[in-house]
């Protein structure tokens, strides 16, 4: 048996998240059906993270065990002919038999994009949350810095989470703005957060809170108080899913054998 690892990019708009569900309309379901069509094998895919319905991935990482003799260089070409246009696999490589794409991930980066200004961008509407009124991005930047380090993120976690511990470490958190689009009179705000792991809806709740800070509904100093409270009701709403993208997942390269 070989343990094959790949990158997966997808537009999550049409899917009920990554993890398999009875609806059979998830990224995992589609990928597993494609592998079965290609090899005749029924395999189970492991992913680096379970993105929610409507959330996208620039670089989701998966792995699965297979006895197929298909050469590594042909896996992605073959699978992409069987996948819909909104899912693409790339970078197939063989990894150690014990490699697990979620457990062995060292850090993950999520990016959330807000379109702020007079008009939305028609061509990026599936990857941006549109906010027509101004946001105080300097206050939002200041608030983000409070998240860096090891904290209990209970306040930024869905009540539906089943994790034993809500302690996570955030390595970097940043906000950057694109130039104003002269036609749309709006611009994109990119919020990037890198950590050793994330709780259910954690990034979207952080963003929902940041938007309230940007609107002036909360002071920029409130982020620390929310963290200390360890109570979901103290944070802002869960931001809409379409603005969120799993951007990057990093590993120890010694785990990759080919």
From TrEMBL:
Gene name in the database record: truA
Catalytic activity field: uridine(38/39/40) in tRNA = pseudouridine(38/39/40) in tRNA
Binding site for substrate: 110
Name listed for the protein in its UniProt record: tRNA pseudouridine synthase A
Active-site annotation: 52 (nucleophile)
Keywords linked to the UniProt accession: Isomerase, tRNA processing
CDD domains found in the cross-reference section: PseudoU_synth_EcTruA (cd02570)
Family indicated by similarity: Belongs to the tRNA pseudouridine synthase TruA family.
């Amino acid at each position: 048996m070989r343990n094959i690892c790949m990158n997966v990019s997808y537009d999550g708009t049409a899917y009920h998240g990554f993890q398999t569900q009875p609806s059979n309309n998830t990224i995992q379901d589609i990928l597993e059906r494609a592998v079965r069509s290609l090899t005749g094998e029924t395999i189970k895919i492991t992913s680096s993270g379970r993105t929610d319905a409507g959330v996208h991935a620039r670089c989701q990482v998966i792995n699965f065990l297979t006895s197929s003799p298909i050469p590594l260089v042909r896996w992605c070409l073959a699978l992409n002919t069987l996948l819909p246009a909104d899912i693409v696999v790339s970078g197939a490589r063989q990894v150690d038999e014990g490699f697990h794409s979620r457990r062995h991930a060292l850090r993950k980066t999520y990016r959330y994009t807000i379109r702020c200004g007079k008009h939305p961008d028609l061509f990026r509407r599936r990857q941006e949350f549109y906010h027509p009124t101004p946001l105080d991005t300097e206050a939002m930047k200041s608030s983000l810095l409070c998240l860096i380090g090891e904290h209990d993120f209970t306040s930024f976690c869905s009540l539906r989470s089943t994790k034993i511990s809500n302690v996570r470490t955030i390595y970097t958190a940043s906000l950057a703005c694109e130039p104003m689009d002269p036609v749309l009179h709006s611009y994109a705000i990119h919020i990037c957060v890198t950590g050793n792991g994330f709780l259910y809806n954690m990034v979207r709740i952080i963003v929902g809170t940041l938007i309230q800070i940007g609107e002036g509904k909360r002071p920029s100093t409130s982020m620390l108080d929310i963290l200390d409270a360890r109570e979901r009701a103290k944070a802002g709403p869960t931001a809409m899913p379409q603005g969120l993208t799993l951007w990057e997942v990093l590993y120890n390269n010694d785990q990759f054998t080919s």
